[in-house]
């Protein structure tokens, strides 16, 4: 189908300015220019700073992606760009950049949903066929999607408050550890006792596959404060034990809810994960076990394609292009753009983090 399409992808919905060139399923180049240092002093992504940085870096990212791929603009079949959801200033920068390129070259323009980019990545990396169950777990998102086609997504459930990555980041902060919290908490957890603190497994008592992680973070805060009251502070071992107990709780919740999602959508041949949290060894192992019990193949794309990148946007663009999508100069940048337009809005909105 899209085996020999050459597509430029552009991504700028959060704090990574990215451009990539794909030919079929081959990634000819994938450039990701992060902005971590620009936002570090503010403890989170500042939308105005992000938008300005995207506007400054996009041309360079595109130039570098084309040069690394050895592809000229005129050799492209299409230009795909994230048109939402995300921080509107950044999304607008990307959409304007793509429109400029499309207008100058006469190449087709394809607007892509950022979440569809994540959700379709296992097709790029592993050639996965439809349908499959996708668990998207990042710093800003947590949801189960049945993926039936490039534009056919059914949302089975997701977090009603924090995303797991956000919880990892907040727990790290509570314990005086560095950001992003995920990898640091995981490293601490390796030396810790996951059974020492009996932390809650929120919403396991309720049917369905909605999740909640904000209470878990509060429970960690209470455990820390109880130790401080009792002993005047926490030791390195206390910290490692808290991290291990917290990680075990997140892994348990994700595993059990995945089991339920697979039961709700029988016949899924594969369980795929994406998002930064999928890098966590304990969580990955728990999900792999659940998939094996359900006789589903477990697919976890390489980390650099699990986190924000433009190769996934180029791929989703290629799928949409093959399906006939062409966007015009009226392509809009959308701050909100749920993948499953039919599912009822969640309690609390479900997305509090900056990233998707
Ligand atoms: O997908 P991602 O790079 O960005 C978006 O959120 O889109 O995910 C980043 C999140 C951060 O919250 C980070 O703490 C978390 O993924 N993360 C991890 C690990 N590595 C990154 N969480 C748990 N364990 C990890 N090893
Ligand atoms: Zn993302």
UniProtKB/TrEMBL annotation:
Q: Which GO terms describe its cellular component?
A: cytoplasm
Main localization of the protein described in the UniProt heading = cytoplasm
- Listed binding positions for Fe cation are 114, 118, 308
Details of cofactor binding: Binds 1 Fe(2+) ion per subunit.
Q: Where is this region: Disordered?
A: 335-356
Q: Where in the cell is it found?
A: Cytoplasm
- GO MF terms on file? iron ion binding; tRNA N(6)-L-threonylcarbamoyladenine synthase activity
Cofactor field: Fe(2+)
Tell me the GO BP annotations in alphabetical order: tRNA threonylcarbamoyladenosine modification
Binding-site positions, substrate: 136-140, 169, 182, 186, 280
Where does this protein have compositionally biased stretches of type Gly residues? 347-356
Q: What is its EC number?
A: 2.3.1.234
Identify the residues that the record assigns to the Gcp-like domain, covering every copy.
Answer: 26-315
Q: Per UniProt, which keywords does this protein have? A: Acyltransferase, Cytoplasm, Iron, Metal-binding, Transferase, tRNA processing
Q: Does the keyword Transferase apply?
A: yes
The catalysed reaction is: L-threonylcarbamoyladenylate + adenosine(37) in tRNA = N(6)-L-threonylcarbamoyladenosine(37) in tRNA + AMP + H(+)
NCBIfam families for the chain: gcp_kae1, T6A_TsaD_YgjD
What is the recorded function of this protein according to its Swiss-Prot or TrEMBL entry? Required for the formation of a threonylcarbamoyl group on adenosine at position 37 (t(6)A37) in tRNAs that read codons beginning with adenine. Is involved in the transfer of the threonylcarbamoyl moiety of threonylcarbamoyl-AMP (TC-AMP) to the N6 group of A37, together with TsaE and TsaB. TsaD likely plays a direct catalytic role in this reaction.
Question: Hey, which family's this protein in?
Answer: Belongs to the KAE1 / TsaD family.
Q: What is this protein called?
A: tRNA N6-adenosine threonylcarbamoyltransferase
From the broadest rank down, the organism's phylogenetic lineage runs: Bacteria, Pseudomonadati, Pseudomonadota, Alphaproteobacteria, Rhodobacterales
UniProt lists the gene as: tsaD
């Amino acid at each position: 189908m899209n085996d020999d399409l050459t597509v430029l992808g552009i991504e700028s919905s959060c704090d990574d300015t990215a451009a990539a060139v794909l030919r079929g399923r081959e990634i000819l180049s994938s450039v990701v220019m992060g902005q971590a240092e620009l936002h570090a002093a503010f403890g989170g992504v500042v939308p105005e700073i992000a938008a300005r940085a995207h506007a400054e870096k996009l041309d360079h990212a595109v130039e570098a992606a084309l040069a690394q791929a050895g592809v000229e603009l005129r050799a492209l079949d299409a230009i795909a760009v994230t048109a939402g959801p995300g921080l509107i200033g950044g999304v607008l920068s990307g959409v304007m950049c793509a429109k400029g390129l499309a207008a100058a070259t006469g190449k087709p323009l394809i607007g892509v949903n950022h979440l569809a980019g994540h959700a379709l990545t296992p097709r790029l990396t592993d050639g996965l066929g439809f349908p499959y169950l996708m668990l998207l777990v990042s710093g800003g998102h947590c949801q189960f999607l049945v993926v039936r086609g490039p534009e056919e997504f059914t949302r089975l459930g997701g977090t009603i408050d924090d995303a797991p990555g956000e919880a990892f980041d907040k727990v790290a902060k509570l314990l005086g550890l560095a950001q992003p919290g995920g990898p640091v908490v995981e490293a601490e957890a390796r030396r810790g006792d996951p059974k020492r603190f009996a932390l809650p497994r929120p919403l396991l008592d309720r049917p369905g596959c909605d999740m909640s992680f904000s209470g878990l973070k509060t429970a960690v805060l209470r455990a820390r404060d109880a130790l401080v009251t009792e002993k005047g502070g926490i030791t390195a071992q206390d910290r490692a034990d808290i991290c291990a107990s917290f990680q075990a709780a997140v892994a348990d919740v994700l595993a059990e809810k995945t089991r339920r999602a697979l039961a709700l959508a029988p016949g899924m041949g594969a369980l795929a994960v994406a998002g930064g949290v999928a890098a966590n060894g304990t969580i990955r192992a728990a999900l792999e076990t659940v998939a094996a019990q359900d006789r589903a193949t477990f697919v976890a794309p390489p980390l650099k394609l699990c986190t924000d990148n433009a190769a996934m946007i180029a791929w989703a663009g290629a799928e949409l292009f093959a399906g006939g999508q062409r966007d015009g100069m009226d392509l809009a940048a959308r701050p909100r753009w749920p993948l499953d337009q039919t599912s009822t809005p969640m309690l609390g909105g479900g997305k509090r983090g900056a990233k998707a």
